Amino acid sequence: MNDCPGVAKDVKSSDPCVIAIFGITGDLARKKILPALYNLFKMGLLNPRTRIIGIGRRKYSNIEYNEYIKSSAPDAAGAESQAAADFIAMNDYCCADFNLPYEYAGIKDFLKKTAVKYKICDFLYYLSTPPADFERIITLIHDSGLSKPDFLDISCAGAFVRVVIEKPYGYDIDSAKSLNRKVLSIFSEDQIYRIDHYLGKETVQNIMIFRFINGIFEPIWNQNYIDNVQIRVFESEGIGSRANYFDRSGIIRDIIQNHSLQMLSMIAMEPPASMDADSVRNEKLKVFQSMRPFDGSNPSSSLAAGQYAAGEIGGAPVPAYTDESNIDKNSETETFAAIKLLIDNWRWAGVPFYLTAAKRMPERLTEVIVTFKPAPHLIFNNFCHVSEQVSNKLVIRVQPDEGISLKILCKKPGFEMGLHTVSMDFNYSSAFDGALPEAYERLILDALNGDATLFMRSDEIEAAWDYITPILNCLKNREVKVKKYAAGSLGPELCGFFGLNIC
């Protein structure tokens, strides 16, 4: 295998840092953030002098909190028990209600004592909380003097304070702008890391490599050769324990506004001048700014929505959305959405992008399908049976079974001139040894090292919401009916809505 020399040496381990995680007892911290930090530590990429301070309301003894941290290290009882013990020792707990102003004196004192004791000047605040808390926490961090490292009694020349903010970043365009105004009044743009974990996935990062390193694709990556692009994000699960959040948000806010549009920007962007954060994000922003505004005068031409009814997945019965715990029986929140989107620029003029996201599908699947235009003249029509669609397809599989497939037509073996679709496949698991890094591992390491390339900038966020908000208003005003589809089905009446098999 021909590798780019020296790439592995470019991976920079972090400097010592105080990582303060607001909402440490939540599912996100337990299932994603702590395991990512633990794996970075095992790989030697998280500085062993780093201190991880969990901030939460739950009352823990030291022993109880150590057990909680240990639960995030699945191999703690096995061969990696010493690594787990060392990681646990890096963690401390600060019991506080981070929504109450008077609690911040204690939080500040805890962080200050930790930083002074371990001679650390750099701080990373990670907001792993409900989105409704973001603005208040940012305000209280500032009001308590924690937004700058000069609250320490040690020399801290060149020290940084950074903040990681989870999605969803806002509820609509107005709330996103309000949150941006607040955050940017306290932190500069280069201190803010708005995270979308899809940007940390290997296959999503590989889109830019695939396009801009392999010279055979970029010349045909335009409206002259591409017929349409489909971006699918399907989940077999329902809403789980997220009923209160999801019923207020729906699948468009939860998936399409962030994950789907970020993948679209990678597919549609122009080559950046370089791979620095601003160059990449400038090109992504241009894509969002070129998206044709949603046509509210004829919404059903570019929007379909649905909600899962009772059905079966994997042979097991699953309830309807309105029968899930804590969901209103009359809820019309969409669990399926398909959006037809056009980008008005020279590269993509007239090429439809279909963004589809859904819950309770037969399987978990995220992929990008680029369908190329057929040959201008089918010379085999007269003497062979063309039984299949003759368009070539490029499939970028984000999850599961990460990889890339190019679907082409070839001659079937035999005496007749028959055509058959075959795949030229690349699969990560067979091409590379070892498991792929988790998205949060890459993104947390980048935030610690000050690389914002894979994070969203304020103008990106607002441009995405600017496109999505009229669609949300359309659903709110019931201008497009939310149809029912059986859980475990592909919702055929929805999937064929645009005259294309978008599921």
Structure summary:
By secondary structure, this protein is an alpha/beta fold. Helices cover 32% and strands 20% of the residues.
Task: Give a written overview of the molecule.
Catalyzes the oxidation of glucose 6-phosphate to 6-phosphogluconolactone. Residues 208-493 form the Glucose-6-phosphate dehydrogenase C-terminal domain. The protein has helices at 27-42, 62-70, 81-89, 104-118, 134-143, 173-184, 202-213, 243-268, 277-290, 428-431, 439-449, 458-476, 492-495, and strands at residues 18-22, 51-56, 91-95, 123-127, 161-165, 192-194, 226-234, 303-309, 311-313, 316-318, 336-342, 352-358, 365-372, 393-399, 403-411, 419-427, 482-486. The protein is an alpha/beta fold and 503 residues long. The strands form three sheets. A nine-stranded mixed beta sheet has the order 16-15-14-13-7-12-11-8-17. A hairpin with a 3-residue loop joins strand 14 (393-399) and strand 15 (403-411). The protein is globular and about 85 Å long. Residues 4-9 have low confidence and may be disordered.
